[in-house]
Amino acid sequence: MRKLLLLGGGYGGMRILHKLLPNNLPDGVEITLVDKNPYHCLKTEYYALAAGTISDQHVRVAFPEHPKLNVHYGEVTDIDLEQKLVHLKDQSPITYDDLIIGLGCEDKYHNVPGADKYTCSIQTIDQSRETYQKLNNLGAGATVCIVGAGLSGVELASELRESRSDLKIKLFDRGKVILSNFPERLSKYVQTWFEEHGVEVINSANITKVEPNMVYNHDEPIPCDVVVWTAGIQPNYVVRKLNVEKDRQGRVILTKYHHLPQDEHVYVVGDCASLPYAPSAQLAEAQAEQIVQVLLKKWNNEPLPEELPPFKLKGVLGSLGKKSGFGMVGDRALTGRVPRLLKSGILWIYKYHSGA
C-alpha cells in the first residue's frame, strides 16, 4: 500500500482531501493526515473569534471520513527527507512514500525586542482563544494596540470595535495610508470607516520595542493594556529547519509541479511554498488542486503536462464589522455592504459545501 502523508489540515490540506476522496483515490494508495487539532480550522475567521463576535464552534469544520483516510493527531517536530520519516512530539515517527507539507505559518516579529513575549496572536486557534480571553477580560476604557494594518489587522480592529465599543483601539500601520496596496478609493473608505467608528490609525509607524503594557513607536512609549501582533508571517519552524532551497521570505522553492527540485515525492502547499502571490487560503486551495492533478498522473503512470495552468485567483474580500466591507474582485474595487455579504456567502458555501 502506497502511503501519502499529509502534514496539516489547513485550506490546502482540506482541498487535497476533498479532491481525492471519496472517489478519486487509486487502489493501493492510502492517506494519513497529521494535525494538532481534531478538526479543520477556518483561519480567515480567527479575527472574529479573538474579538468575541463568533463562537469557537463557528471556526471548526470536521475532517472528511473515509476508510482509506487515517487521521493522526500530533505535533510535527522534524522532517527527515533522507529517511522519509516525519517526527512527532512524544510519539513514534511516521513513514511515507509521498509527502505533502502544509504546516502553515507563524508570526514574524522582525527582530523587534519583546514582540514575541509581550504580544498576542491570531495565527492559531489556540492563540486566538488566548487573545479572546485577554481582550474580553479588559475593563471599560482599556487600550488595545494592534500592530500591523494588513487584512488581519484591519479586520480585527473593526470587529473588536463592534464587540467592545468601550475600548480604545490603536491600529499601527507602516504605510503612509492604510491598505496602500489597494486602490486609493478603497483605502480612503477604510480610513473613513475607522475615523467614524473611533479607531485611531497611526500611519508611518515603526514599532521598535514592546514591553509589558507598553509599545514603542519610533522609540516613543505608548501605554496600552493588550498588544496584538498582526505584522507579518513566516513559514512554520519545522519548514524553516529544512535544509532545502528557500526564497528571501523563507518559503520553500519548488518546481512547476510543486515538489522539491531534489525530491519529486515531497510537495509543499500553502504558506510555506514560494509562489508569485501573497499567501492566502484561496492560493493554497488553487495550488492543492494542481498537486492532486500531478499525484494522480504519477500514480496512474501517466505523463505530466508540459505546463500547469496559471492560478485563477478571484480577488480579496475583507470585513469592517458585520455590516460593511471592502475588496477587489478582478480589477474592480468594492466597498460597503456588498463585499461583506459576498464574504459571508463564500464562508457559508465553504463550511457547508466544501466537499462539492
TrEMBL record:
The keyword Flavoprotein applies. Its cofactor is FAD. Pfam families: Pyr_redox_2. One of its GO terms (molecular function) is oxidoreductase activity. Keywords: FAD, Flavoprotein, Oxidoreductase. This is NAD(P)/FAD-dependent oxidoreductase. It comes from Aeribacillus composti. Signal peptide: none annotated. Its EC number is 1.6.5.-. It comes from the Bacteria. The keyword Flavoprotein applies. Belongs to the NADH dehydrogenase family. Residues 3-287 form the FAD/NAD(P)-binding domain.
